[in-house]
């Protein structure tokens, strides 16, 4: 059964994930939105972008197949969350909701505050994204909120290797507080065979915890994403 509501969290490819899925789902009525903040997805990524739409305008657009990006007006050209009432109306009208539910300041990894990520009450699926470009870099440069780990706060020059990458993903899994059957983990930015090989121990550890984990590159080969998310 296709998941109706997909929340996308973590770092290192959330917006690209939105774009890839919006294109792949063009024959459906898709709402692309956020529970935090996103830069608007304009055509051709989405059929139309709506800022502070009225209910009539948003629901009319969702009668037509294609992705509709909608949110409230926020600072720095971003969109914020729709009102809970309008979001519920739009979600009911859409076939699928794609919701970016996390922020990472464009960094490839993230640690979370107690109020993050901002998930809907009942997401069907939560896709956790982590960026392999963080490997070999100091945590201060590639991990949003790195200081939430006391060891990293004391040593911001700590280099991200396999243990650090796994720590970030497992922290995100815990922050989502969902059953493993509702989670998928994408180790993104595997743009070379070497990065794919480096990430394999992390994927194996996550699979041992019962998580469905894939290593891939949304830049080089985005087509796997739709098949993975909607094949079960």
What does this structure look like?
It is a single chain. This protein has 232 residues and is α/β, with parallel strands linked by helices. It is 33% helix and 23% strand. It contains 8 helices and 12 strands. Strands 1, 2, 3, 4, 5, 6, 7, 9, 11 and 12 form a 10-stranded mixed sheet that branches. A two-stranded parallel sheet has the order 8-10. Helix 6 (162-176) packs across helix 7 (193-208). It is globular and about 50 Å long. The mean pLDDT is 95.
Number of strands: 12
Q: What's the Cα radius of gyration?
A: 17 Å
Strand content: 15-25%
Give the helix tally: 8
Order of helices and strands: EHEEEHEEHEEEHEHHEHEH
Task: Calculate the terminal CA-CA distance, rounded to whole Å.
Answer: 7 Å
Mean pLDDT, to the nearest integer, reads 95
**What gross morphology would you assign?**
globular
Structural class: alpha/beta
Flag low-confidence runs: none
Helical residue percent band: 25-40%
Main pleated-sheet profile? 10 strands, mixed
Characteristics:
single chain, 232 residues, alpha/beta, ten-stranded mixed sheet, two-stranded parallel sheet
